[in-house]
Every structure is written in C-alpha cells, then in structure tokens.
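Model it.
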Amino acid sequence: MNKITLFFASRKTWTIPYILFAAIFVVLPLLLIVVYAFTDESGHLTLQNFAKFFAHPEAINTFVYSIGIAIITTLACILLGYPAAWILSNSSMNRSRTLVVLFILPMWVNILVRTLATVALFDFLRLPLGEGALIFGMVYNFIPFMIYPIYNTLQKMDKSYIEAAQDLGASPWQVFFKTVFPLSMPGVMSGVMMVFMPTISTFAIAELLTMNNIKLFGTTIQENINNSLWNYGAALSLIMLLLIGATALFNTDDKDNSNEGGGLW
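Modeled.
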C-alpha cells in the first residue's frame, strides 16, 4: 500500500500519460515520415523521393509560392495585429478584457466554418475568389494568433522603461521604436511562428477560397497521400517540416526575456 501511495505521490508518475501521448501521437508519426521519406515502395533505402521533388519544377514552384503566401500573410498579420495589440494593452482593464475576448471569439468556431463564411461573404459582395481572397482568408483565420502573444508581452512589460525613456527626453516615436518595440519582440516572434507554421502547411483554406485553382504545398502533400503515394508524400512532408523547424531559429526567446510574456499564454 505504501508503494502504491509513493508511486502516485511522485511527480514523475504523472508525466507518464504525457510521455505516452507524445510517443504515440508525435514521435511515432515523425519517425514514420522519416522512414517513408527515405524508402521506396519495396522498403529499400533511397533518395529517389527527394530527387523526384527537385526534378519537378511544378513542385518546387508550388513550394516557393507557398512560402511567399506564408510570408505575406505573416507580414499582414504583424501590420494589422501589432496596432490592435497596442490599443488593447493601453485600454482600461475591463474594456481590454472584453476586446480580447472579441478577438479570440472567432477562434472558437471551426476554421473550415470560418472559411466557408468567408466564401459566402465574397459571393455576397460579388468579389472574385482567387489570390486576394486566399490572403484575406489566411489573415482572417490566423491574425488572433498574432494579436494575443504581442498583447500578452505588452501587457506584462515593465512600464518603468517607458517612464525612464520619457524622463530622458525621448519623443513618443523614440519611446516606441527604441523601448517598446524591442521589448515586445518576443511576442512578435512568437506570433510569427504561430502564423507562419500553419499557413505554409494549410490546404483546405486554399481549396475553398480559390475554387481549387491555386495549389499550395499542403495541397500537393494531400494529393500524393490520397493517391497512396506515401513515400513521395512523406518526403514532401519532411521538407516542409525542415522548413518549419528552420523558422524556430528566428525565435529570440531565451531565459533572459522569458519573464516578459513572449509566449501565447
């Protein structure tokens, strides 16, 4: 009985479900992607899947185009999300909480439902579906992921830095660009990762908002998987995962600024 009590009283015991979940639903799928990417249909090791990608200009162009769409979406979210986060952080406490809930409220609705609503909106306004609609839908769906990390950082920022800059004679613009903006970079970089990563891998939004006329890299992966081309699809997925992992290098969060609230929570 004492052993059972000690077993459940240990903190390490309560990590077991999370370890099992991560092993089954995170580590194992990633290992399967790597295995399929470097093997052929017979199970033999090969680099033919990657050679096939680089030998097809259409796949490379789709990959580059997807990166461009992701960059444009991320920049648009920064330009629209930072002022919104700034306004929210400088509002009164009750008003700020209400506005934050209004920004987060659309996230409670399934992303496909929001995208279908965007399609209906464009049809109602008689606007053509295409690249413009795609970028609009991307920004609409992912801008909350940019606003909240920046707002969280600005909300937790030590106001004494701003007061010190004002006491030293800095103008409002100097206070912002030399004090506020650098201190808010952890939130900006967190938002960039949370917008860029899902944008570059999405496919449903592109299919719905362009009537399947514009293909993103996620669509290419989906088509290969649906056609049972598991090995080539896994190679494309691995290429995308490497790109997404590379974006983590731009995350400037570290132990020195971890108390500034750079994360989403």
